[in-house]
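Handoff note, outgoing to incoming analyst
You'll be picking up this chain. Sequence as last confirmed:
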Amino acid sequence: MFNERWQTLVDVVDFAFQPIVNIYTGKLYAVEALIRNYESAGFVTIDAIFDTAFSEKILYTLDVKLREKAIHKFSLFPFSKHIKLFYNLDNRITMMPDFKSGYTCELLSSYEMDTSNICFELSEKHQVGMYAGVDKLVLNLYKQQGYKMAIDDFGVGFSGLQMLFNADPNFIKIDRFFISEIHLSKKKRLFVSSIVQIAQVMGIFTIAEGVECEEEYLECKKLGCDMVQGFFVQKPTRNVCEIVSSYEHLKFVAQNEKRKSTQSSDIARYLQKNHPVFIDSSINDVYEMLRADKSVHFVPVLERDFTPIGVIKDTDIKTYIYSNYGKALLYNITQGSLKKIVSSCGRADINDPIEKILKIYGFDDENDAILITENEKYVGYLSSKVLLEMINEKNIVDAKDQNPLTGLSGNRIINEFVSTAMESHEKVMMAYFDFDNFKPFNDYYGFRKGDRAITLFADILRSAVGIEECLIGHVGGDDFFLGWNLKEEHTFEKIYDIVHEIVVKFAEDIQSFYCEEGRSSGYILAKNRDGMLQSFPLMTVSAAVICHGFGHQHDLDDNELNEIFGRLKKSAKFSPAHIACVDLGVIKPA
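Most recent structure output, in case you need it:
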């Protein structure tokens, strides 16, 4: 029974909200509801509340009442319909005798909200020995009703990967343990990088929890996390008026970091310092430099105004030193100037991007370094060893930004493209592709053939797109992305024809992946989500296409854009052409 103690808890408890924002733009994506003021009802911890309720078999009843309060307070946000509410769900509610589904749908409809506004967070805490309950909860109930699912505190329990496999979540929230001082720990960066990579392959978004400082935020951004939550964004607040739709300080930090990444910060991190000599120095000064540091094999040579001229290599002066009278000869030919023994050397500005510097090094294989200048003045050098380390790091970063199965650009690059496109006044078109009837195909023919279907589509994208400014991306699973920065001569019709060609080509080519019986009948028999046999048509692909900058301006934010893409995807699946398009500038916000 729901006694007075529990009713008191429900009456006094309150909810604070903490924002979850896009890591690139700082725009609000969701808020997490956090229980507050439970101490007034005599409970020491939040876990104590739910453990006690579970033992007394009223966990579901309690959760329903708390859920009511959280959703009601969430509805007070002026933009609540355009963001998501993350609500911590104890999956043990499915074991309660009074558990039933459907109540939350009714509650949301009373606030004119959709199930997609809610994301239930599942923790690893209660997973051991309860996977049947998780499957029932996630796969057969809430996900089927359109709710989003997230795994909370990922990485700190023992069953995380198994839970990830069973739950098929939309989000992974990386636990604060891995985020705390991540910029100081290679091991933590390795763990988070691995989690992000797994998530990208599976089409799951990652949220870095508990980010408390700029350094942690930047490292999470660098590693490819999609969203961020923590004190650096905003502390939890009970006042809904304190939650804003965009956190400009994050946007500023991201933009500032982006500017720095192509300026001094990246190169300064690698920069090596070495005492140079001047063009009018004595050859004895060169000897001293090389003798002082046996690991250095060259000496930079500068004009008196610190403009670099080149380098003197130890190998060049050795030819003199080890020959008869060579040292005396060298002394004579360098009287007043070292110019005759100076070799040319690659040179770059500290503000140049790493890619440019690596190209300079690649074109000059006779030298062991590149001299770095700032305002045309020598500030240091990059040795061949360091340059090779830079190449290796760049290759690793490039690999992180690619989907391992297809080699196409992943979520981080796609998100940055979309974010930049929305702030641009140039003509842009973006298309999201989603397979139709992929799951029954995958279940019927197996994962290996499913992967072959995914790589087939990736190859079709590569061959069909002939515009240089196009980004080809693989969101994960059977979801793909194309984005075009259009030139003046490019038209909507031209891009539409490309998308249509891709859709038709895939529908034709995928037929060869089916058995003769499937091709001739036009369908296969596979189990649906209820475990019943059902006939599924042969696989196709649908495309949701958005135009931006075609003479119309708009003020849509990220969440509204996601909603539009969601509606277009549904429309495309019912369209005879499997394509749905819209110009953002002519959309009236709800």
